[in-house]
Design goal:
The structure is a single chain. The chain is mainly β. The protein has one domain (about 20-100). The protein has one helix and eight strands; from the N terminus they run H-E-E-E-E-E-E-E-E. Strands 1, 2, 3, 4, 5, 6, 7 and 8 form an eight-stranded antiparallel beta sheet that branches. The longest helix is centred in the N-terminal third of the chain and has 10 residues, at about 10-20.
């Protein structure tokens, strides 16, 4: 098999220049949380942003989906919102704007 890709460097440079300085950005993320070696939650988000100078907060400006699992591993509930923050000092997730729990 042969694989190939093409990268337009002019687009890459433009995208890099459009980013705020000292901001880490990840797209289409999945973060698994566990307690006592058991999966307790799955956080998915289209965009995750973290300031390199501030390790205390991660923001999810385009919304979150948080699946929370029962001790037996089955899905217990799901929370969605249009904006989210993770406070790493208090280990708390903050959901804002159109928060729905199912």
């Amino acid at each position: 098999m042969i694989y190939a890709c093409k990268s337009d460097l002019s687009n890459t440079k433009k995208e890099k220049n459009d980013l705020p300085p000292n901001i880490e950005i990840a797209k289409n993320i999945e973060v698994y949380y566990s307690e006592n070696a058991l999966k307790s939650a799955l956080l998915t988000a289209p965009v995750m942003m973290r300031e390199q100078d501030s390790v205390n907060k991660t923001t999810f400006p385009n919304g979150i989906k948080l699946d929370m699992f029962n001790p037996d591993g089955t899905l217990g509930s799901t929370l969605t919102s249009k904006y989210g923050e993770m406070d790493h000092l208090t280990n708390q997730m903050i959901a804002k704007d159109s928060v729905v729990r199912e």
